Amino acid sequence: xxxxxxxxxxxxxxxxxxxxxxxxxxxxxxxxxxxxxxxxxxxxxxxxxxxxxxxxxxxxxxxxxxxxxxxxxxxxxxxxxxxxxxxxxxxxxxxxxxxxxxxxxxxxxxxxxxxxxxxxxxxxxxxxxxxxxxxxxxxxxxxxxxxxxxxxxxxxxxxxxxxxxxxxxxxxxxxxxxxxxxxxxxxxxxxxxxxxxxxxxxxxxxxxxxxxxx
Length: 214
Hints:
Elements: H1 2-20, H2 46-63, H3 70-82, H4 88-91, H5 94-103, H6 124-129, H7 136-147, H8 153-161, H9 171-186
């Protein structure tokens, strides 16, 4: 009897270890860069950097395809994302889908929050990027919400929408936007199913005050 119990415990341990171990993902970096856009001590941020760059390329291609203007693209995107009006299926590129699959291997990066967000704000990446956000009022709010474990779009969305102008030059803030308003939103999407094309840009839904520092 003791032998059977011992074998059962060993099997369960082996199963759990196998289940928790991240799978190796074949991933080709599209945006190799000598410059570190995201720099966190003791943390490999190459994939996070790739996530931002892929997101920003999708952003420009979707919102300002004729002449990429990243500041305007951020303004349009954040305004629509806060209002849950982004056409993600049309916007997301094949490369960003691959980035998401790679990001999913970090199990600590994801959870399910009360507001439906998949982003786990307890992940150390948010403690790293928070103090480096350039806009002071936004930085203080972000860090206060992270420190008190109360980050949500309900608490942060309106202020974020008013501060989009500098996002293209602040990759730490851009990473938060990419993770929570982009990759988190497409986390559960089944892209194998074709859907009818919708009106893509939805510029009429844009808040004319978004992206300006009042």
